[in-house]
Amino acid sequence: MMSVQLTLDKLLERAVDLFPDRELVTKLPDGSTHRYTYADAYERICQLAHALDELGLEQGARVGVVATNHYRHFELYFGPACTGRSIHMCNMRLPDHHFVHTVDDAEDEVLFVDPAFVEKVAANADEFESVEQYVVLGSEAEIPETDLEPVTDYESLLSGHPTEYEWPDIDEDTEYGMCHTSGTTGLPKGVPYTHRAMYLHSVMGGHVDANAIGERDTVLPVVPMFHANGWGIPYGATFVGAKQVFPSVHTDPESIAHLIDEEEVTFSAAVPTIWLEMAEYLDENPEVDISNIDRLTVGGSAPPESLIRRYDEEYDAPILQGWGMTETSPLGTLSTLRKEVTELPTDEQYEYRAMAGFPVPGMQVRVIGDDGEEVPRDGETMGGLEVRSPWVTDHYHNRPEENEHAFTEDGYLRTGDVAVRNELGYVDVVDRDKDMIKSGGEWISSVQLENELMAHERVAEATVVAVEHDRWQERPLAIVVPTGTGELSEDDLESHLAETFPDWWLPDAYEFIEEIPKTSTGKFDKKRLRDRFDIVLEAEKEGDAET
Amino acid sequence: MMSVQLTLDKLLERAVDLFPDRELVTKLPDGSTHRYTYADAYERICQLAHALDELGLEQGARVGVVATNHYRHFELYFGPACTGRSIHMCNMRLPDHHFVHTVDDAEDEVLFVDPAFVEKVAANADEFESVEQYVVLGSEAEIPETDLEPVTDYESLLSGHPTEYEWPDIDEDTEYGMCHTSGTTGLPKGVPYTHRAMYLHSVMGGHVDANAIGERDTVLPVVPMFHANGWGIPYGATFVGAKQVFPSVHTDPESIAHLIDEEEVTFSAAVPTIWLEMAEYLDENPEVDISNIDRLTVGGSAPPESLIRRYDEEYDAPILQGWGMTETSPLGTLSTLRKEVTELPTDEQYEYRAMAGFPVPGMQVRVIGDDGEEVPRDGETMGGLEVRSPWVTDHYHNRPEENEHAFTEDGYLRTGDVAVRNELGYVDVVDRDKDMIKSGGEWISSVQLENELMAHERVAEATVVAVEHDRWQERPLAIVVPTGTGELSEDDLESHLAETFPDWWLPDAYEFIEEIPKTSTGKFDKKRLRDRFDIVLEAEKEGDAET
Ligand SMILES: Nc1ncnc2c1ncn2[C@@H]1O[C@H](COP(=O)(O)OP(=O)(O)OP(=O)(O)O)[C@@H](O)[C@H]1O
Ligand SMILES: Nc1ncnc2c1ncn2[C@@H]1O[C@H](COP(=O)(O)OP(=O)(O)OP(=O)(O)O)[C@@H](O)[C@H]1O
Ligand SMILES: [Mg+2]
Ligand SMILES: [Mg+2]
Fold it and tell me: Could you tell me which InterPro entries the record lists for this protein (chains A, B) (predicted)?
């Protein structure tokens, strides 16, 4: 058959050929709205391609982008890739030393930077070893006062270049981009992606048994475009020619809710905290209607079942859970309901929707026990989650040690997540192996405890971490943010948890705080919490756990 | 990223891993029903794999299958392919000399033959140059009296072999199968398929903007499994773990209607004549309910718009038109309605649904005029349809001459179909270039005329072919099968056509016959009709055309 390479120019060419008039909408930082079409975007991407040539970037050179989600970032999703270069999607929310590490690790030769991040970049520029030039993502007037140099602005860079470009023939196994992991458990790790992987990931995003993103959808990626390729949404949506909406800095609940309402968004995606916060906003502003939504994808960490119910019952906006990793492009499993599940009573269906989900087509998944065999599919036996797919990485960039341990001999990635599996093949992620609480030789899942805490009506957010214990090794500490409406005591929470969990799972201590610190990608920052609550519990302090 | 090869064992492994209990149902020739599951099928496919090894078939050897659609044929869809051999799906409805040509052309080393076709195969066995053994697709008791040798039966061949098999690593560019074209325009041409092509085709079959075959579907391929991979349905359905229903010999309208009703079929596919005939049956048997159907795919030739309306209005079973070729695996375009079309009035939507359709994701399509440029997308200007995709062939087997002409320099296949394209990117196939009628230097589409004839309520079937004309070169001859209810005259037809077409398009002559001869894949056999009505029209016989 024809050796048509699975490269990203194909996605773009399809959109501009068949859907030239479909819109790409950006809510700009100043609150105004920028609208243009795939045809417009295409011309500018061609100009960008010429500009990259003029900058003297070689094949394979990495182009760093430090930007929120907006149309210029979208252009950068294609310009470098379609010319044989690589986009490095930088996570500027990382702490400085991690941020610098990622830029150096990727050896970015140029950085495209939002005006708002110029200061942060400039403050670290001394430490960049490879960066030779800077481009500010705006017009000349938008370049802030800065020491960075050489610096130019994006609009001047593009202007004057031809609006057509002959894409080179690129082998599908060429790197098109790189992301770093979120740094939740340590130094972020670089994952280089190939054209083939993202092409296949984009196709699968449109599969009816996966995200089913089609041309009739309007997508709104709230998830940052630096977080695992914006979960592949900008590429998948381009492939089908769907309308796209970018929020730039406006990722607060109010702005997102209004964008969904006004732009008739049918598909959006973010980490759970975003949807948790938006629920508060929607309750206070019942005139805002988000019921256009068909799928509100949530991933990055597990959403509580209570959140899924709330979005169904109160806002008519179904939540769809996804599990994935930077290493998996990221689509791995989705809590779509297979036929057998749609025939179950509603309550049981919610149990399924609260799971990490079912492997999407093209993704091989297994849960391996200590004996090296697949664990029984009983929904109870825990094991290490391992995955294999054309869009899963086979190595980390510059990390020989991790590379030695992260892959099995038969080519699966060890995800570092602990999971169970049930008869119907659904995976539920119990916890990260690093976050599991080892109490007297038995494992307690921090995720299950925190999700049950968040189901309490007077809890806004909650997390659970291990603290040292002189007798049981580790015991759970619950850290809770009350909603503030009504009283909330340790006893309330303990009796609430006791309805679901055995005595020995119940936290030994509760801390009430105002806000749970989040990581750069909006996950609960357990590293920071463990440092902050670095206490040692003693046996006599315990209640039930000891008996 | 991981170099996971896109091979067909992945489809099978997914089905058996996640949907082991889903059913594969066959209505056997004797009228009884065979049911088993993917888990059962998998064990037998492993046994078949061992048996193929034992037969001494080398890597790359072609295994011919002469069979209707049933579970053993399904097993053969995987056994040879997953062990690095190739299944040659033989079209036994071809005239003998064509049938023999296809077997010799493919150099089949073994033929797996339905009991019902043993006689036909035996009658031609002398001419097979490569076939060394025969396997009858049944149990020992089902082998008919025959001279074929050596011959064994399928069940004995399988029995005793282990029910597990370690699939070899196969490069995705390896041939997994071969089909021959239908022979509508001449000697059938062999098309070799790779694993990669059919894997991608299967994925795309599940895309929400294509056939959207998902795990909740129950599929019934009426289209023979030798016709362009059964339009890829058995592979696509396996990938998602959908229930499959095979009719074997029972492809008459009554049987199909009952199977749809009883097995709750949601997706079926066939050439237009099947659905035309089934409509007659459904009208006479209103108690049969086929409204489970979500998509009744029709392809191979253009269905009349009147048929599409009838299925909506009377049976609540939406028809979806597809265009494709043996050369394209076959999925090319589908008359899915893009967002802009769903907003049009119903009548205009039907116009879209009567078109060949919109390019499925992954398929590049263009219509090229005489000047070598894309024709304007005005819905009127005709040109040659050209396509490019990872699942389009880049050569015919053993056909150097065709290979020289069928492909453009930049790697597109010249389909031989004449098409127009409209603003929204939809393709409508006007005719095959060989069937277009050239009247006085202007082109008349035989397909458009015949579809309008079939919209007449007293016409059961109709076709139009060119006949020689002493002044205008060629003129249309209409060949019509009346329904038999009420009178039908030439004048009725002429005035009916005159409502739609200009005078010079109207046929010069009408022939009324009892049945239109069909090709091996159920298309109108215009070659045969042209031979039968090999007449020369004279100028003085004409009416309006001359004035
Ligand atoms: N639906 C989900 N349920 C539970 N956990 C999830 C879910 N989706 C993602 N995760 C968690 O997120 C991880 C992947 O996140 P990401 O790639 O953003 O980096 P990280 O693992 O948070 O950071 P790092 O690898 O640098 O420590 C998964 O391994 C898993 O632990
Ligand atoms: N929806 C459709 N509308 C009109 N024509 C169609 C449609 N689908 C398929 N066809 C016709 O069928 C052809 C492909 O058919 P197939 O591969 O079965 O062999 P064939 O072209 O009939 O035979 P041969 O190539 O041997 O002459 C297309 O080229 C086109 O002419
Ligand atoms: Mg990680
Ligand atoms: Mg043909």
Answer: AMP-bd_C (IPR025110), AMP-bd_C_sf (IPR045851), AMP-binding_CS (IPR020845), AMP-dep_synth/lig_dom (IPR000873), ANL_N_sf (IPR042099)
What is the pLDDT at residue A547?
Answer: 36
Look at residue B534 in the predicted model and tell me its pLDDT. Answer: 87
Q: Kindly report the nearest CA distance between residue B85 and chain A, in angstroms.
A: 17
Check residue B206 and give its pLDDT. Answer: 98
Nearest to A390 among B2, B209, B339 (CB): B2
The answer to whether the CB of B170 falls within 8 A of the CB of B314 is no
Would A343 be classed as within a structural domain? no
Q: What is the mean pLDDT of residues A147-159?
A: 97
How far apart (Å, rounded) are the C-alpha atoms in residues B220 and B25?
9
- The phi, psi pair for A226, rounded to 5°, reads -90, -10
Rg (CA), chain B: 23
| Protein residue closest via CA to atom 25 of ligand 2 | B181
Asked if residues A394 and B1 have their Cβ atoms less than 8 Å apart, the reply is yes
Question: Is A89 domain-assigned?
Answer: yes
- Compute the mean pLDDT over every residue in chain A, rounded to the nearest whole number: 96
- Residues B209, A214: C-beta atoms closer than 8 Å: yes
Give ion ligand 3 contacts, CB < 5 A. A 181
Q: What is the DSSP string of A380-407?
A: ---EEEEEE-TTS-S--BT-HHHHHHSB
Strands A151-153, A509-512: pairing is unpaired
B112 CB near ligand 2 (under 6 Å): no
pLDDT at A4: 98
pLDDT band at A544 (very low <50, low <70, confident <90, very high): very low
How many CA atoms within 13 Å lie on the side-chain side of A444?
27
Count of Cβ atoms closer than 10 Å to residue B2 Cβ: 20
Residue A341 lies in a domain: no
Contact A2/B239, CB-based, under 8 Å? no
Identify the pLDDT of residue A274.
Answer: 96
pLDDT at B84: 98
Query: What's the total number of domains in chain B?
Result: 1
CB neighbour class for B509 (10 Å; exposed up to 12, middle 13-18, buried from 19): middle
**Residue A44 tokens, joined:** 């500018």
Last residue of a domain, one of A192, A207, A222: A207
* B199 neighbors B223 (Cβ within 8 angstroms): no
φ and ψ at B380, to 5 degrees? -130, -40
* Tens digits of residue pLDDT in B245-256: 999 999 999 999
CB-count exposure of residue A541 (10 Å: 0-12, 13-18, 19+): middle
> How far apart are the CA of B31 and the nearest CA of chain A, in angstroms?
29
Q: Note the ipTM here.
A: 0.96
Last residue of a domain, one of A207, A240, A261: A207
B333 lines ligand 2 (CB under 6 A): no
The pLDDT score that the predictor gives to residue A540 is 62
Residue A3: closest C-alpha in chain B: B390
With CB atoms and an 8 Å threshold, state whether A1 touches B193.
yes
Is residue A374 exposed (0-12), middle (13-18) or buried (19+ Cβ within 10 Å)? middle
- The nearest CA of chain B is from the CA of A334 a distance in Å of 14
